[in-house]
Amino acid sequence: MLHSWVVLPVALAYIGVLFAIARYGDRCADRGRSIIANPYVYALSLGVYATAWTFYGSVGRAAGDGVGFLPIYIGPTLMMALWWLVVRKIIRISKTNRITSLADFISSRYGKSALLAGLVTIIAVVGVLPYIALQLKAVSSSFTILVGYPEVAAQVPRVAVPVLNDTAFWTAVLLAVFTILFGTRHLDAAERHEGLVAAIAFESMVKLVAFLAVGIFVTWGIYAGLPDLFARAAQDPRLATLQAPLGGAAGSYASWAWLTVLSLLAFMFLPRQFQVAVVENVNEQHIAKAIWLFPLYMLAMNLFVVPIAFGGVMHFTGVNVDPDTFVLTLPMAQRQEALALLVFIGGLSAATGMVIVETIALSTMVCNDLVMPVLLRMRSMRLGDRRNLTGLLLGIRRGAMVGVILLGYLYFRLAGEAYALVAIGLISFAAVAQFAPATIGGIYWKGATRGGALAGLLAGFGVWGYTLLLPSFAKSGWLPLGFLQDGPFGIALLKPYALFGLDGLNEITHAMLWSMLANIGAYVVVSALTRQTIAEQTQAARFVDVFRHTGDGRDVHAWKGTASAPELQALLARFLGAERAAAAFADYARRRGVASAAGVPADGGLVQFAETTLAGAIGGASARIMVASAVNEETLTLDEVRAMLDDASQVIAYSHELKQKSQELMRATSDLRAANLRLQELDRMKDDFISTVTHELRTPLTSIRAFTEILHDNPDLDAAAREKFLTIIIQESERLTRLINQVLDLAKLESGRAEWQVVAIDLRAVVQDSLDATGQLFRARNVGLETRLPDAPLVVSADRDRLVQVFINLLSNAAKFAPADVGRVVIAASAANGMLRLSIADNGPGIRSEDQRLIFEKFGQAGDVMTDRPQGTGLGLPISRQIIEHFGGRLWVESVAGAGATFIFELPVARSASAADAARASPGHGA
Amino acid sequence: MIQSIVKNQRLAAVFLLGAALFNYPVLALFNRAAAVFGIPVLYAFIFGAWAALIGLLALVVERSR
After folding, report:
1. List of E strands, A821-889
2. Which residue in A247, A296, A306 is closest to B31 by CB distance?
3. CB of A46 within 8 A of CB of A286?
4. B44 and chain A: CB distance < 8 Å anywhere?
5. Is the pTM of this model over 0.80?
6. How many independent structural domains does chain A possess?
7. How far apart are CA A799 and CA A732, in angstroms?
8. Which of A201, A369, A698, A827 has the fewest CB within 10 Å, making it most exposed?
9. Domain that holds residue B34
10. How does the average pLDDT of chain A come out, rounded?
């Protein structure tokens, strides 16, 4: 059954099925009902990671070292744990910036650098060539083996077969054709290929089913289950060491760890992985399911690797069968034709899936990031004048696909013989791992510069090429073997497998170590030493802070130029077609709230929009060039940026002033408010005063009226009573007069309308005058009086009459409160600190401390208001205090209840020598 | 977005757990010529731990939905 004229049509039919699925998927997408918009399809599409390497190569590796094939899958499993953080960010950035390839991503991050885009593309193409070669090798040898049935070929003879007879060559041709058919039917602005993703998901299922089928067959068909298989393996001398292979056959723990790290990185940065994981992603939320579904897929895929490997070793004793082929040759040896065919299809599926997706991704990069920027710069092409560039773009893409696949075939011819499949694949892994520092650094470290990325990539790629790529040529005979053994030109320190004397390491580990050192080292150091351009800084912020921006395209970077909306629309039409361009512009106009596309304001936002939309079709770097040429954009010079900053700082200064002014306004308002409150309080006080005064006036008036009425109503009152009442009336009238006078006086004093005659006077004269005036009071109550005055004159500047008024008030108070007959009043004077002090002390009842303040208040009288008769008007002391304070002095009382009271006032000594005048107004001459 | 932070932390924890499990010295513990249920210990451990890790990932991701 397994003749070539059976196998070939079956293979082609299978490819046909894939193609049909792809067409179906695309048609559904065009109609808007996408079949790939669910997380299971997304997770399965990631399965493109498992290629012929997984299908055939893992078994080959396991037969040699037991577990050495596993880190390739454990690494990605671990990476999935970090996916939610890292890949989601990458996807968000890519969607926001319309990034469609890895080269685009890196170049866009570092200021949309065309140089970087080109470098990344070259590294990707060169790095992936071994990987493509290994797929070709796997397909061609599996085909050859299969059609050799029932003979199970020992080793596939690798005589130098002429190209046209080489199955690998025809495999390459066929794959190129399929890739072109799958990938370049039209140009999608977002580089999405929905049909392709559907086909990939399907083929992931096919290869899983095929591999599981073989595994089940070997385990339970050939042997009696896993325990049986392993028990027998334990007894086989060739497999003895593989029971605990680590540290021995499987290499050191260090190389195991490095391999895990390598796979972790490669899983992210293989172009095909970037394509299916980021570019083809429909919904960020699908990542969640993929995080555990995809590792589960890999686990299932690897479950039977070891059983098949051990089974193959044990089965093919004595015959030298390539372990890489056990998956196929075991069923063949057991005459399971259908199973063998299924296995072949599975392997074919794995290989074609990889090649198609990888090649499409690479051709996108080659077209957008390598060829187009060069072409756009070449004036001779005059691309700016061409009307329709779609055809050109598609042509470049197709050429790139054919070129990449043929280059892969070339590598296969040159170097594919010396290695097992896995070893070839790891070389590619190490190459794409070089993208890790620039990318991961790019999305988390704003300070990473273009120079740093360039340096890192060049350094890493250079070391990789020297330690892995060149040796692969040497091992296949294209370079002298002495190169490997003794180093180039005999320099032992530069031996590719033991750089600088670091030997003892597995070649992949060795290469990884040095290349990562060079890459990360150069990246960090050069980034620290170089400065970023404005474009770089903007892009860095857009990338690192992508989760912070709402991403509605309104954060416009610094831009200056002239453009018009119709011009830009025409530009877009040249690449996307007229209708797509019109639709995009109409949508943008709607978003800006403008009626028609022609009315859209030509500002930085429009340019941004045009660049982003165009980037989907031709890549970020090329889009920038095209739009820039259409727009006559002028790069901002440093001076212009400084001018912009100056403007900005002026605005800041203005706003600062505004803030200050408003603060002052607030202060003024609060002051006004305080003043208003005071006014209100004064108003209340005035009302209080008026009410109190009227009350005080009413009291004596009431008495007078009462007694007068009595006298009037009782004409025949006896003379003594009449005499008494009349006295009271006279006293009350006097009191009333006194009160009114004092109120007026106080009013005059408080309003400042009093008239003062300030002269230098001798206090002793004042004392004398007051004594004369109040002498009668003292004699009437028989209160003793003593004066202790110095002989020197006590000169102050004051109004003489007012001072006399004060003194009379104080003296009369003292006389009134000193007890009759035993009362003594002492007047003393002294001078100190430029102040003259005069005190009047009595030995009356004293004043309680709580009343000492009260007596100086208007109408405040010590004693119980209800029962004690008012001794005075209650205004004397307030007036006196006012007068003293007016002349810069103080008036207060010192007293202890029950031990007399001393009233003291101080006045400043009169300056200037008016002492003579004062002395002339000597005591004895008083008014 | 506290849920998101918790999820991130848990995922990071799973990552570290995996890194610890699949390296020296844990791996060295199982690198012996012994068998459990007929399957060599190393292989059993690797695939078992792998499955457990996947289970943890599923738990973290599906729980915080």
Report:
1. 824-832, 835-842
2. A247
3. no
4. no
5. no
6. 4
7. 30
8. A698
9. 24-65
10. 84
